[in-house]
Amino acid sequence: MASFGRFIRLALGACALVLVIVAAPASAQQVNPTASSVKEQQLLQELNRIQGRVSIPDQRSGVLEQPQGREWREFRNVTLRWIGGVAIVGMLALLVVFYLTRGMVRLESGRSGRSIVRFTMFERFVHWMTATCFIILAISGLNITFGRPLLLPLIGFEAFSEWSQWAKYAHSYLSFPFTIGVILIFLMWIAGNIPNKVDVAWIRRGGGIVGHDHPPAYRFNAGQKMIYWIVVIGGGLVAATGYQLMFPFYIGGIGGMQMAQIIHSVVAVLFVAAMIAHIYIGTIGMEGAFEAMGSGEVDLNWAREHHSLWLEEQSGRTGPNDQRPQQATAAAE
């Protein structure tokens, strides 16, 4: 009888075990990583399966795999390249077509032989410091996105590795003087870059770029104001997000880092495209424009055609007798 009772208990225990296995939740069976039919998406949905607990102070090390990281990688390797390629290559193509059809904006009244100070030495120093840093930051930053598919096949692994290392150092350290330059630009020229009604009329008349009309403008016209705010806002965004990437996890977690990288990269490539247009206008796009940031002085006829209201203000301050045949002594704002 004792052996028969023992048999009954064993049989009942076996039946209970079978019932537990059969009644187990389907989801628990589906996420078994050793099952041959397991699906990756099912594993990713079970966050407790990819994130555990650790005993070290850095609790972020407990995340073994982040599902959102796949979306971020897709953006970085595919979407960002399309955004950057369309913006930058598209801007270059547009400027080539524009130059071939419009050509350089010439000084229609010719040179007067007399000049007026447009930018002081300090203003030009800040401009060129910021511009130089920006160019190096742009090239080194674009290397992160386009270096491997475009540059690596041309120069090889060893040269690309060396170049990328120095580009990384330059990108990190030159961010500081660039940020200082953006702040100084904001403070120096904010008073002259507040939009007004004159800007609306300037835009309606094509700003002297389309056609041969030369609408009046103060020290900065609507196009220059647009560039100013692109530099201030765009530069501020890339600086803020760049420092978050440079000093990770001080503000947010891995999700915040990914969002900072997305904002940083998108704003940066659009920033580069806008600055290409700015460089075009300041060099081969308009006669006499480069002199403003080169020597700091512009011809009186250039100032009269492109910034007539500013020239009137300067003449009213200094008086007509202060303008000598070779050089006007009017000071910039």
TrEMBL record:
Principal subcellular localization: membrane
Boundaries of every Cytochrome b561 bacterial/Ni-hydrogenase domain copy: 118-295
Recorded topology in the membrane: Multi-pass membrane protein
An example molecular function term from Gene Ontology annotations: formate dehydrogenase (NAD+) activity
Transmembrane region(s): 82-105, 125-146, 166-190, 227-250, 262-281
Signal peptide start-end: 1-28
Needed co-factor(s): heme
Pfam families in the record: Ni_hydr_CYTB (PF01292)
EC number: 1.17.1.9
UniProt-annotated location(s): Cell membrane
Biased composition (Polar residues): 316-333
Chain segments carrying region Disordered: 311-333
Keywords, in A-Z order: Cell membrane, Electron transport, Heme, Iron, Membrane, Metal-binding, Oxidoreductase, Signal, Transmembrane, Transmembrane helix, Transport
Family per similarity comment: Belongs to the formate dehydrogenase gamma subunit family.
PANTHER family: FORMATE DEHYDROGENASE GAMMA SUBUNIT, FORMATE DEHYDROGENASE, NITRATE-INDUCIBLE, CYTOCHROME B556 FDN SUBUNIT
Name of this chain's protein: Formate dehydrogenase subunit gamma
Organism of origin: Bradyrhizobium xenonodulans
